[in-house]
Write a structure and sequence with these properties.
309 residues, alpha+beta, eight-stranded antiparallel β-sheet, five-stranded mixed β-sheet, disordered C terminus
């Protein structure tokens, strides 16, 4: 057998194998459970699964026809995903539930096996029992990436669990935008009307305009965008209202109350969830309550009340 003939046989064999492989993949049957048809609205916020983050498992993203692997998820360990559809994929290896997901700017999109991602959940602030426990959660939880950026705006202010519970459980007063507090005087509030941006109508972050927004409402309207850019925009809004970086650094005598749900679900409501069931409601919250409060002196308060009455 000549060398040229051997090479020819090898090429034909390779092409036959490739053809068989493609035919096998093409036989994937896809059944749609539900589809929101938009990876920017009505989505469920997801993270890459911890087993992939720790390289204990290898996972792939497929194209929407499930005929080709397009990304290795191990290269996207800390990417935040938007889930907008669930499908059943049947191949010669069996049947599995897959999700349609995309990253924030829709540059990475495809099908992933449902166990390769996990729902983004936040713990209820009322479940914590100490400042130290809550601060550790803010510093380490994947759902608190935005909160960590916000804390940098007030580098010398100490987080208070008591104040955080109050900002989580109380609604702002419509007339002022301030969250009512017990035992604290509200000194700075992301919902406050006085923080509503009144500068140039052209100032924006990725076409989200500042004008007419307070920090809380701005964060709400930009929830799909990167945390760092959004918080930089909030810093500009605070600067415009007179709360410059220097002034914020000098607010160390005030305590910080913070409750952030940035397109995440509540962990207490999803303890037993293993997958997003057919029907697929987005099931997430957008809460951006941040307050700097000055601890009231109970003795002084009693003395003032005595003088008044």
């Amino acid at each position: 057998m000549t060398k040229r003939l051997k090479i020819g046989i090898l090429v034909v064999t390779f092409l036959l194998i490739l053809g068989i492989s493609n035919t096998s993949q093409a036989k994937s049957k896809i059944k749609v459970y539900w589809d929101n048809h938009d990876d920017r609205l009505d989505t469920t916020h997801m993270y890459t699964a911890p087993t992939i983050q720790k390289d204990q498992q290898t996972g792939y993203m497929w194209n929407f026809k499930h005929t080709k692997r397009i990304h290795k998820l191990n290269n996207y360990k800390y990417t935040e995903w938007n889930l907008y559809s669930a499908v059943s994929v049947t191949t010669k290896h069996g049947k599995g539930i897959y999700y349609k997901i995309s990253n924030a700017d829709q540059s990475v999109r495809g099908l992933v096996y449902h166990k390769y991602v996990t729902r983004a959940l936040a713990k209820n602030v009322n479940s914590f029992t100490s400042d130290a426990e809550y601060i550790n959660y803010l510093k380490t939880a994947p759902s608190q990436k935005l909160a960590r950026q916000i804390l940098k705006l007030f580098p010398n202010s100490q987080v208070s669990l008591d104040l955080s519970k109050q900002v989580a459980n109380n609604n702002p007063i419509a007339k002022t935008g301030l969250i009512p507090l017990n035992g604290f005087t509200n000194k700075l509030d992301f919902n406050a009307n006085y923080l509503t941006y009144k500068g140039s109508k052209y100032t924006n972050y990725k076409n989200h305009y500042f004008l007419g927004s307070d920090p809380s409402s701005f964060l709400n309207s930009t929830y799909l965008l990167p945390a760092t850019g959004r918080v930089n925009a909030v810093a500009k809004m605070l600067d415009a209202a007179g709360y410059t970086a220097e002034k914020r650094a000098n607010m160390g005598n005030y305590q910080l109350g913070i409750c952030i749900y940035d397109e995440v679900g509540d962990q207490d409501n999803h303890k037993s969830d293993t997958l997003i069931h057919p029907g697929g409601s987005p099931s997430f919250y957008l809460i951006y309550n941040v307050v700097l409060g000055e601890k009231e002196n109970p003795r002084f308060k009693i003395e003032v009340q005595h003088l008044l009455y």
